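Sample intake sheet
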Amino acid sequence: MNTNNFIWADLSSYNPDKAKQFYEAVFGWKYYSTDNYLIAYNDKKETVGLYQTPQKFQDMKMPSFWMSYIQVDSVTETIEKARKLGGIIELVDTKNSIGSIALIRDTLGAGFTVYEGNALNSRTKNKENTLIFNELHVSDTQKAILFYKQLFNWKFQKVDENSFEIYNLKNDHIATISEIPNSIKSKYEYWVCTFGVKDLKQSQKTIEANDGNLIFNEGNRLLCSDGSEAFFYIQKI
């Protein structure tokens, strides 16, 4: 069990049909549908999910977004701890066929989903067209660190004034947290998913040819948009 580790991601989209076509063009994903939830797979392995943005979030004018999932031993205990730390519990579903989930917002407003179960496990280290990394973009790293350190017992190692590497209890580097100006990240605080690709230039061309956008070039990886406000990284593997 990957306790307190990233294991899955899904996309909340205002236009699932368009998003489906976009990501199929970029990553070659194929899909099957179950209970109004599309599951993308790569090389016959389930990779990510895709679904229509709930009306609640549409009414809030929340943009399309990629959601990072973290496996926990107990959703109920994690909810209680998050609430005591100042987190906001947006959604709880303990009767899902794949396990129990809860959508939580940290003290800065960045959302993530905790998952109790064993059905979801798609993050890899370096496989093409899969989720390979997660990164938190916020306006205040110290406030975020305080929350996540107490919630998941993560350890943080400073990289520079604006970035910290995140390690689990096994000392695996599982994520990064970065303080990003709003001119780059927009006004929202969020977890970003990184997908592995073989050829950055070709992937960028495909993204732009399908109405996506390059937001920021970091050399070995690119921050992109799928044409909505859903951001993601592609990184050369």
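Comment: The helical segments are 16-27, 55-59, 75-84, 141-152, 182-185, 200-209. The first strand starts at residue 5 and ends at 13.
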